[in-house]
Write a structure and sequence with these properties.
single chain; mainly alpha; 72% helix; disordered N terminus
Length: 270
């Protein structure tokens, strides 16, 4: 085994599960390599100030804003009860689509993806590590948003927690697939612009935070077919009524399958 010494190569090798040069030693198991990569990706995301603003600060500000304005009045429940499911959906989009898309795009630009894909970590392990990082950060987001929301008077339907969390994970999968598709097919600068622009457009007009009935007529006609609208509506149905919106779940499954298949087909590693 080639000896790896010092600096960035050693760090990259550690992430890939390659042990320091010990003659005759074997690489770590695939599971350990994936866990190490997921840990590295998670820490990197949490150390990035811009990522934290996008993942935590902006969703919390949006939640507070929706509770002090009349935008969500007349929807059959209190403002905070209607707002929180959409904010959780926004958290998933922020981390899985915008955050992971930008991170992967610049990893691709600097050759990190190409290097790691040739190590024992492999392409499958690299993608799995990114998925673990998204889930880890999303877990922290759910904890923080839930704590603040409960202080603001949120009263979720107890029967909605299990389907709600499952739908949230499905939504994260759909947005991760979309983020990887963008990051793997366009230049990093374009990835930065596209993911940020879509975050704004989908957050404001995509049915993720503001229910479809509060949007302009033209937007109402399409939001239910978008991953943002499907995730927002499915989470509202779960946490407000304890029910599962089958149509919204189907839309999320289709987006996950289509975007995942497209990313697998056209993703460029260099």
């Amino acid at each position: 085994m080639t000896r790896v010494t010092g600096g960035a190569p050693l760090e990259s090798a550690r992430r890939a599960g390659v042990p320091p040069a010990v003659h005759g030693s074997a690489p770590a198991s695939l599971l350990r390599r994936i866990l190490l990569q997921g840990q590295y990706e998670t820490v990197t995301m949490l150390r990035n100030g811009e990522q934290l603003i996008l993942a935590i600060v902006l969703p919390l500000l949006a939640m507070v804003g929706l509770t002090v304005t009349p935008l969500l009045d007349g929807l059959g429940s209190s403002r905070i009860n209607v707002a929180v499911p959409g904010i959780l959906a926004l958290c998933a989009m922020s981390t899985a689509f915008t955050g992971q898309g930008i991170s992967t795009g610049f990893d691709r630009r600097y050759g990190v993806l190409r290097f790691l894909s040739t190590t024992p970590l492999g392409r499958t392990g690299l993608i799995a590590g990114k998925v673990l990082a998204v889930l880890a950060v999303l877990f922290l987001q759910v904890l923080i948003v839930t704590a603040v929301a409960l202080l603001l008077g949120w009263q979720p339907n107890p029967a909605g927690w299990l389907p709600g969390l499952a739908i949230l994970v499905l939504g994260a999968a759909a947005f991760t697939a979309l983020g990887l598709l963008v990051a793997g097919t366009v230049r990093p600068e374009a990835t930065l612009a596209i993911t940020n622009l879509l975050w704004i457009l989908l957050g404001a007009l995509g049915g993720i935070v503001i229910p479809a009935e509060r949007l302009p007529a033209l937007a109402q006609a399409v939001v239910h077919f978008l991953p943002s609208g499907a995730l927002g509506q499915a989470l509202r149905d779960a946490f407000l009524y304890g029910s599962v919106n089958g149509a919204a779940v189907l839309v999320l499954l289709l987006w996950t399958a289509i975007a995942g298949g497209a990313a697998t087909r056209w993703f460029k590693w260099n």
